[in-house]
Amino acid sequence: MKRRYLMAAAALWACAPFALAAYPYPVRPIKIIAPQPPGGAVDMMARTAAEALQKTFGQAVVVENKAGAGGLIGVSAAAKSPADGYTLVIGSTGPFSVSASLLQRIPFDPVKDFVPIARLAQMPSYLVVNANVPVSTVTEFLALVRSKPGRFTYASTGNGLSQHTNMELLKSMANLSILPVTYRGSAPAISDLLGHQVDMMIELGPQVIPHIRAGKLKVLATTSATRTELLPKVPTLAESGVPGFEAYTWFALYAPAGTPQAIVSKVHEALTKEFDGPEIRTRLSAIGAEVALTSPTELAAFQAAETKKWAAVIRQAGIKPE
After folding, report:
1. Quick check: 100 and 189 in contact, CB under 8 A?
2. Which of 112, 119, 215, 249 could form a disulfide with 162 if both were Cys (CB 3.0 to 4.6 A apart)?
3. Residue 208 and residue 254 share a domain
4. What one-character DSSP code corresponds to residue 228?
5. Exposure of 178 by Cβ count < 10 A (0-12 exposed, 13-18 middle, 19+ buried)?
6. Are 205 and 179 in contact (CB under 8 A)?
7. Considering the domain boundaries, does residue 109 fall inside one?
8. Dihedral sign computed on CA atoms, order 198, 199, 200, 205
């Protein structure tokens, strides 16, 4: 009897991959949570991923913006969603590799509560100042800020997000005293930056490059290791007086923990098909981003390395919760 049971169990296990491969997914609309307001880089990546999945699956894919608490509200909502493949979330550097080290408690576990699907892209940020700040180079910027400690302000979009951690890293590495002003997303932050209510910001390209080209913001440097193709005349912070500075924001797609592997594989395959094509690569390149597609396993390893990196930065910079 026991032998017969074991043989039946083995047969079922052998058939499991075929059963999963035939999993009827998707049969209804898919939702991607973007844990930031509309118009920002996270929102843009969510909509790019949604378009890619919809094109491949022939099923509606909608983006739901759930902003607040530096992305924690939206990510927490995703963690509590059914693990059926119909709710996905765009993860980024802050909520998935910084917040756990920065905050004493967050409403989810960025490793245990999610299944990695794929890293999608990465992009550098730019150090910009408003037109009233009397500098045009990083050298002038460093001298001015050091001469008036605590006098200048920078726009942040919340604890743990790149606008916060990149500036705090710069403050630590360059011995600067700049006061943070926190906003609920990039759009209101840039609005105040343009209106001279805040002095500076380290922000992603899609949000500031149009204002740079229009002459409304002055760009001093990029956070990348080398100069970007989009703004090749803009130097890096590393070559402008802050040696060793390098920071990128990355974007990835996750599903709630427990989502069937068959669904994860289908979503990954759909993303690979579209993100490997010239259309998305050209679109991302136009805003200063680059495709960085990975497997789920590679994303898990990358996320672990990023968490370790930013934990060290937070300790060394003495960054504390606001």
Report:
1. no
2. 249
3. no
4. -
5. buried
6. no
7. yes
8. positive
Q: Would you state the structure tokens that stand for residue 89, as one six-digit string? A: 């979330």
Sign of CA dihedral 237, 242, 244, 247: negative
In a domain, 16, yes or no: no
Q: What span, in angstroms and rounded, lies between the C-alpha atoms of 153 and 193?
A: 10
**Side-chain half-sphere CA neighbours of 52 within 13 A:** 26
pLDDT per residue over 167-216, tens digit each? Answer: 989 998 999 999 999 998 888 999 999 999 999 999 998 889 999 999 99
pTM across the whole model: 0.78
From CA 311, how far away is CA 322, in angstroms rounded?
17
Q: Answer for the pair 193, 217: CB distance below 8 angstroms, yes or no.
A: yes
- Tell whether 114 and 256 lie within a shared domain: yes
Asked if residue 137 and residue 109 are part of one domain, the reply reads: no
- Asked if residues 313 and 171 have their Cβ atoms less than 8 Å apart, the reply is no
Output the six-digit token pair for 230.
């989009």
Residues 128 and 159 in one domain: yes
Residue 316 CB burial class (10 angstroms; 0-12, 13-18, ≥19): exposed
Distance CA 124, CA 229 (A): 11
Would the pLDDT of 2 be above 50? no
Number of domains in the chain: 2
Q: What is the token pair recorded at 192?
A: 């105040």
Distances (CA, A) of 88 to 142, 168, 280: 42, 30, 20
Q: Which residues of 266-299 are buried (b: 16+ CB within 10 A; e: fewer)?
A: bbbebbbebbeeeebeeebeebbbebbbbebeeb
